[in-house]
């Protein structure tokens, strides 16, 4: 497989894309929502067909609001196609949002609504834009809703002072305020809730220094965007929409590198809110398709975001006017101790053998409005992979009257509550277990009926169900039967005749969407209704809610694609795993939320003939382990 065809775009290539798009007659004022590698069809590559290096651009004509989906042949420097987006819209331009506050603060309806609440100085008002896909009666190609807060001083936590009941809707093309809706005055919480060190003195004085050193240097090597660590090899990059992407994951078994995963990424994530108040019930955020996790990725800081012997990768992205820019320290790479890898004490001889585990960590962090999301890929010495999302930041808030019921929110201060909501992530896992011909098996632990085969009633077995078509591959987690799914290559076996495979083991956060089918967000985010989807590989199916969920009213993506019920046996399969956190805020989540974790594991299942970590050497402290 030619990895260069999947590599992220260079600065020169981004300039080429911008030049060709501007010359394609799409408009005089183009905004580049997202520019990225248009990955080739793997099936054609395997068939030996020549494939050009290609780019894709999601573009907005700022003068009309029309969205375009443009594909560029970088080898011939020509526009392959430039299609008008029929449904939905290109992701927001961040500079579109930057003008929202100025627009609403000049609108007399908005000024009057604030005056009813005793707010006459709009310089202290913070305006947060939200996408409006869940509101069918808001018309326009590119519209946002605006929610407001007060900051008593520039570094104040505005979410402590929500201006309740006022929502403005703004046309992002013209800057016109289309409507201002006032749902009634509620008292504002005036107490500050700041989380900086100066606001929370005295600090603990018993936190001693913790130093992590590797005197001989790190154990991994980086060549461009290819990373090699012990027996692992893969490429890592930052996509403007999906954020952190892992490509070409392989594990060395003897002298051979064996393929496991062609591509892994966050294909969409949605944050639906569960408060029924009319100023809140429309809120949700599609952080991939509406905003772009990669565009919102942080530059990481040594000793703060990552600790130890750190190596960083910069990311080259396209600015919204088509110019390339470098995001420094976008991806953090380091090793860390991970406790015991394996251990046994022989009770006969008293001899103990133990190995300490270390893991390679590849991570990035994105800030999406009030929330931070960290994405961590952990590569272990036993051939397993753990994928984890870390959630932190500030919860959304709303103001209430004293004594007012808030059945879908938690009281966190005087006149202030934090609404219940969910964070639902969809991971796209394009498996290649020893090649592309893979199948998916659902595994349930089940009791054997009492009888001749189970006279004591204590026996159980594993019911293995081959998922033959897409609709049979739509599944939910079930911890009562320890449900998991194994991706197998039935054409290859280990030494004991068992098909080689990798297991997707659900983690502790596997919530699906709580909104009912009639809810607009349920129509737009249909992928959230199931934990598992299995599809045959298609280069046009990359994101769970489709490519353009922004203002898409009907929904797209997995529920639409899988209606065809295509076969998924012994073929190039893609597994889409949905995990979710149902966040019922606690008082302890205020004013800034401690990290909450959600994730899953990928474990080798008969991929090897025995424990692949037997060759991990003892630590220097082994003499103390007897």
Description:
- Helices cover 8% and strands 41% of the residues.
- It has helices at 11-22, 42-46, 94-98, 100-105, 108-115, 287-291, 520-524, 558-561, and strands spanning 30-37, 54-61, 67-73, 78-84, 125-131, 143-150, 166-171, 177-182, 220-223, 226-229, 232-239, 243-253, 256-272, 284-286, 311-318, 324-345, 352-368, 371-380, 385-393, 398-399, 409-413, 416-419, 421-431, 439-447, 460-466, 484-493, 499-506, 532-536, 573-583, 593-605.
- A hairpin with a 2-residue loop joins strand 21 and strand 22 (416-419).
- The mean pLDDT is 95.
Question: What descriptive keywords fit this protein?
Answer:
626 residues; mainly beta
Overall 3D shape = globular
Structural class: mainly beta
Tell me about the biggest sheet? Answer: 10 strands, antiparallel
End-to-end Cα distance, whole Å, is 48 Å
List low-confidence stretches.
Answer: none
Q: How many β-strand runs?
A: 30
* Radius of gyration, taken over Cα atoms and rounded to an integer in Å: 26 Å
What's the helix count?
8
Per DSSP, what share of the residues sits in E-state strands of 2 or more residues?
35-45%
Overall pLDDT metric: 95
User: In which order are the strands of the major sheet placed?
Assistant: 15-16-17-18-19-30-27-26-24-25
* Helix coverage percent: under 10%
